[in-house]
Design goal:
alpha+beta, nine-stranded antiparallel sheet, five-stranded antiparallel sheet
């Protein structure tokens, strides 16, 4: 955009004076801000180090307090252990004025509402022994009451016996309803963790957090075993509710609003305050709405276990414990927290201190924010002063620019009136030699422009004609392009194969053959749908793999049409660029009819082989049948002559049975061949060849044909073993027929060689195949045998099996006086 000379001078003034001044000011401000930020970064680093030391002192102090209180609980538990073992040893009844009663549900319980309550499960038969135990264990109440009343942390104290008696303080009214009719102590962790198996040292044991059957919610217990002459009478325990742990041990006002979490040695969150609940979105378990009787130990869900939970904070704590890290910085909800971990020796549990990092830097951040305000005020004052200086300088420069630009403005006005006064131009004397010269030159230039302007008009008319001609040519080419696109679309629709274009798995275009192939009549019914709608689930991995390649060579797969019918297709594809987008073009040729005809060819080949099988069965059975017939005639003659002895009858009968078994083995071998299960497996080629030889051996011997295996290498092949048998059998039958047709052949031998280089060769010396027939050897329905002796499918099917099933080939090589077939395969 053009500007006048005044604006140009003003712009020069701004660039040469104002902008350098602004840049220099900004440079100074930037240096100041960078120095300030560097100083605050160093101060923050120092402050964090200092506060982390303070937090280490805090968690060490809190750990010692909790450790002391838990150690005190253990001492009280040992005191109870010693006292209760003495009670069981003495069995002294100090107070007989205690009444008991059997409830309707069979529970024997204490009705005197003083001291502790007593419960005896209905599953325990109450005799004098049990009643005596109920009375002398009343001596436990004094210490029970002293512990609960004088220690805020202790919720209740109890004794559970091996025969399902429970004595607990404070007293529970209607205890028979709270526990229900039966209670098996061995089912609860607050009993079995103290037994001989779990606690052979007989020391105090701390439980994981569990749901109290006595109705006091979630808690932990310190338990000790009570032995009487090496017999476990029961377990005494001290209960501490999770609520009491939070209230008395964790809910403390700590520096920097830090919070404590208590974690068991097995990784379960024992207790955490409300603030941590909000941080983890997990509500702590304290109270519980008892709707049913607690029959077994109920522990906290796995969401509370740091080793099993998916909670991000718990996973960080787990990593700290595993790597034995004492301190770690973590991010929760985009906020930084400092975690400090320590271990409580008494319970082998962990105490975690969690502090929001922003709290550590609260003072520094306040100073930093105040400094920002001061910087803002200074910048505002600087901008105000700069504005005043700018106004004064602009006013002075404007006066100077007017003195320079007025003559030039006059010249500009002359040029503006060029069209009206081009033939009557004059210039103003300015007294400035440079400008007067400029005026004279300018007038001369205008005259020259007038001449050139006339020439330009003629050129414009010529150019306009050329543009019009080019436009018409372009329109004609567009019409031809549209016609070519339409012809291309018609070609796509005329092809018999399916052509489909997809973008990100969705069909964007498809030809008519493709629409018809999937069972629809309109393109609109197919376009916009996912390509996977027409692909069976089991074929999806193959298609996805193909789509990862830029160009996919032809491969066989299956599609599903509208009616759910499977279509066997030969597919290929590649990525092309269309309208600036990467599009997948895929083609598919329907092979369903071809597959059906292939199956028919395989069936015809199989039926021809089964005919050969029947002949072989006849050869196998001829000798046993003759032997059975001769033996039967011998028995009949001796019977009529009265010369048949019992031992001779038994001997001949056994011989007949033996021949029948041989015939049964023969028929089983042929049934096995004809009913082979088609499943892919790894098999030994030598085993397959031996199996085929066993089938044909007797018949071949009748024709004086011997089969010799030259190399018996062990080669394993993966595929359908019955199909490999079919190939071997086809080649052997062809060799047999060649020997039978060649009457001059004397040494009738077939040589089989198994090579380690993934080939099997089969040779015969029956004269070989005529040269003119070699090229037609593997074509369907071609045979050199007499009419009625072959259908010409054996070698065609055999080559297809080797190529399609074993990724190999079947080749023919003419040798001297014979033929050699080579089976190639990939292991």
């Amino acid at each position: 955009m053009k500007i006048n000379i005044k604006d140009k001078l003003r712009k020069i003034f701004f660039k040469t004076i104002i902008i350098p001044f602004i840049i220099f000011s900004l440079f100074l401000a930037t240096i100041f801000i960078l120095l300030r930020n560097y100083m605050f970064t160093k101060v923050k680093s120092f402050e964090i180090e200092k506060t982390e030391k303070i937090l280490n002192i805090v968690i060490d102090n809190e750990k010692n307090i909790i450790d002391y209180k838990f150690a005190n609980i253990e001492l009280l538990a040992k005191l109870l252990q010693k006292e209760h073992e003495k009670i069981f040893k003495d069995r002294y009844i100090s107070d007989k004025n205690v009444s008991f009663k059997t409830a309707d549900n069979g529970v024997f319980y204490k009705t005197t509402q003083k001291g502790s309550s007593l419960y005896y499960s209905a599953s325990t038969k109450i005799s004098k022994h049990e009643k005596s135990k109920a009375l002398f264990t009343e001596n436990m109440d004094t210490l029970f009451k002293a512990l609960v009343d004088n220690n805020k942390l202790i919720t209740s104290v109890y004794f559970n016996s091996y025969d399902n008696m429970n004595r607990i303080y404070p007293f529970i009214n209607k205890i028979y309803k709270q526990y229900g009719p039966t209670l098996k102590m061995q089912n609860y962790n607050f009993y079995y963790l103290a037994d001989q198996k779990h606690n052979p040292q007989k020391k105090p044991v701390w439980t994981e957090a569990y749901l109290d059957p006595a109705g006091r919610g979630w808690m932990i217990s310190c338990i000790v075993p009570i032995y009487n002459k090496n017999f476990l009478e029961g377990v005494t325990g001290i209960d501490i509710t999770i609520e009491e742990i939070i209230e008395n041990l964790l809910n403390k006002k700590l520096p920097f609003d830090s919070k404590l979490i208590l974690i068991s040695k097995n990784g379960t969150i024992t207790a955490m305050p409300k603030e941590i609940e909000q941080l983890t979105n997990i509500q702590e378990l304290t109270t519980y709405n008892y709707t049913e009787i607690i029959k077994n130990t109920i522990k906290k869900p796995k969401i509370f276990n740091i080793y099993k939970s998916r909670n991000r904070l718990f996973q960080d704590i787990s990593e700290m414990i595993k790597k034995k890290n004492k301190i770690k910085e973590v991010y929760i909800n985009n906020k930084s927290y400092i975690l400090i971990l320590d271990k409580i020796k008494t319970t082998n549990s962990y105490l975690l201190l969690i502090t929001k990092k922003s709290k550590l830097l609260e003072t520094i951040n306040t100073i930093q924010n105040n400094s920002k305000i001061i910087i803002f005020i200074l910048i505002s004052i600087s901008l105000f002063l700069f504005f005043i200086i700018y106004k004064l300088a602009t006013k002075r420069f404007s006066k100077l620019s007017n003195e320079i630009t007025e003559p030039i403005i006059y010249l500009s006005n002359i040029s503006s009136n060029f069209d009206q006064n081009k033939d009557n131009l004059s210039y103003m004397e300015t007294g400035i030699s440079e400008i007067d010269t400029l005026n004279q030159n300018f007038i001369n230039m205008i005259k020259e422009i007038k001449i050139k302007n006339d020439k330009l008009k003629g050129f414009n008319m010529e150019l306009s004609e050329k543009i019009k001609s080019a436009t018409n040519e372009l329109i004609e080419k567009n019409l031809k392009l549209s016609e070519a696109i339409e012809n291309f679309q018609n070609i796509l629709d005329m092809t018999i194969e399916m052509i489909v274009f997809t973008k990100d798995g969705k069909i964007v275009d498809v030809n008519k053959s493709g629409v018809k192939m999937v069972g629809y009549s309109k393109k609109s019914e197919v376009i916009g749908r996912d390509l996977s709608d027409f692909i069976p689930q089991e074929e999806l991995p193959k298609i996805i793999k193909a789509f990862k390649s830029e160009i996919t060579p032809p491969y066989e797969t299956t599609l599903i049409n509208k009616d759910g019918k499977y279509l066997y297709v030969l597919a290929s594809g590649k990525y092309i660029s269309l309208n600036g987008q990467k599009i997948r073009m895929s083609t598919a040729i329907d092979l369903t009819e071809v597959k059906r005809k292939d199956e028919l060819l395989f069936q015809q080949s199989k039926q021809a082989q089964m005919g050969e099988m029947v002949k072989m069965i006849a050869h196998h059975w001829r000798q046993p049948l003759n032997a059975i017939s001769a033996a039967s005639i011998e028995l009949t003659i001796k019977k009529e002559l009265g010369e048949l002895k019992d031992d001779e009858f038994i001997q001949v009968n056994e011989f007949i049975q033996q021949q029948c078994q041989e015939m049964s083995k023969t028929i089983n071998t042929f049934i096995q061949f004809s009913q082979s299960k088609s499943e892919i497996k790894k098999f030994n080629i030598l085993d397959v060849i031996n199996h085929v030889i066993a089938i044909v051996e007797i018949e071949f011997k009748n024709f004086n044909i011997e089969i010799i295996i030259e190399n018996k290498n062990i080669v394993l092949l993966t595929g359908y073993s019955d199909m490999f048998e079919q190939v071997i059998l086809n080649i052997l039958i062809n060799a047999r027929d060649a020997y039978n047709d060649n009457k001059s052949a004397k040494d009738k031998k077939i040589y089989i060689s198994i090579d380690n280089n993934q080939t099997v060769s089969i040779k015969d010396y029956a004269g070989g195949i005529k040269s003119e027939n070699i090229d037609k050897l593997f074509t369907p329905y071609f045979t050199t045998k007499e009419q009625g002796k072959g259908i010409g499918l054996g070698l065609y099917i055999s080559r297809r099996i080797m190529r399609e099933q074993f990724n190999g080939d079947l080749l023919y090589r003419k040798i001297k006086n014979g033929s050699m077939f080579i089976l190639k395969f990939n292991k």
